[in-house]
Design a protein that fits this description.
3 domains, about 25% strand, about 40% helix, D-Maltodextrin-Binding Protein, domain 2, alpha/beta, 10 helices, Arc Repressor Mutant, subunit A, about 300 residues
Length: about 300
């Protein structure tokens, strides 16, 4: 099959998937509905897979169809935009971007970034889903998901754009620490209420452990008995500032609170696994607005990291 036929098949498939209707897709493509239906049937026959579930009322994507749609929609959008640019029809970015993020990332980083981005590109629309669960980009239709983790990415099918890398240290309020004897060694942490985000935790033999490393690179695991786990880094930070125990938090970002006397670093020679933030997509072939979004977001985090370092 010739190259242009692949693109034509893909474009027809994308319109049917978007509208979940042969009739609406046909109107968009300026073709009879029967031609679109026949085209999709021939495409499925060539591929040897079923892309749609057809009923008298609905045209729904199969699991394979959802995967193919996640890959192909960006390719078609990029091709359409490239063609329009040649014709001089695109003067600015426009259209939707669907973003997934955790509560902490959305609150601390995404909200201030989107304020700046929207001022530059007012016709880009955002659909933002804030959730603590790890979204499936392909099945849930996200353009970009921002994911923070201390572990390497396990899904090799995703394209990861690094945004931030921060070390993690232990902090508590001076008022909390004043109630106890000075902490000079790791074993003393067992006597304290420890609070942390879910991501720095590892599960081993059904027991919670806190992995800490000394500056000499000697690792140790602390078995946790008195521990509160938070699903949000923002909530964890506020709980720590309110005096709820000793917490593992981003080292650089907490220095402003240390300087202001609100927090005190505990066992400064020890640190936890660094936390990494990535922008994840299903493909490197993205629409112009998604490419621009990721480029601007990367620059935003670079500036934020430099600003935080200079402040400290």
């Amino acid at each position: 099959m010739k190259a242009h036929q692949y693109l034509q098949d893909m474009a027809t498939f994308v319109e049917v998937a978007r509208h979940q209707s042969f009739t609406l897709a046909a109107a968009k493509l300026n073709l009879p509905p029967s031609s679109v239906s026949r085209h999709i049937a021939q495409m499925e026959a060539r591929l040897g897979i079923k892309l749609f579930h057809r009923t008298s009322r609905n045209v729904l994507l199969t699991a394979t169809g959802k995967d193919y749609f996640a890959q192909s929609k960006d390719i078609i959008e990029a091709a359409q935009e490239a063609y329009a640019q040649v014709q001089g029809k695109i003067r600015h970015m426009q259209g939707p971007i669907k973003i997934g993020a955790s509560v902490s990332v959305a609150q601390d980083y995404l909200a201030p970034f989107l304020h700046e981005f929207s001022q530059r590109y007012p016709e880009v629309r955002f659909e933002i889903e804030v959730s603590q669960h790890y979204a499936n980009l392909a099945l849930e239709g996200f353009d970009v998901v921002l994911r923070m983790s201390t572990q390497p990415l396990s899904d090799s099918s995703l394209v990861a754009y690094p945004l931030m890398h921060q070390s993690m240290s232990l902090f508590a309020t001076p008022s909390y620490l004043a109630k106890f004897a000075p902490i000079t060694e790791m074993a003393q942490l067992q006597d304290h209420l420890l609070t942390g985000n879910i991501t720095p935790m590892v599960m081993a033999q059904a027991q919670r452990k806190w992995a800490l490393t000394h500056k000499t690179l000697k690792p140790e695991h602390l078995h946790l008995t008195n521990y509160h786990a938070w699903g949000s880094m923002a909530l964890l930070r506020e709980a720590t500032l309110a005096g709820l125990g000793i917490s593992c938090l981003p080292t650089l970002e907490m220095q402003k609170h240390v300087k202001a006397g609100r927090l005190q670093e505990v066992l400064p020679d020890w640190f936890s696994k660094p936390v990494q933030l990535h922008a994840l997509t299903t493909s490197r072939a993205q629409s112009q607005r998604v490419r621009c979004f990721i480029e601007e977001l990367t620059a935003f985090f670079r500036a934020h990291t430099i600003e935080t370092s200079q402040d400290n």
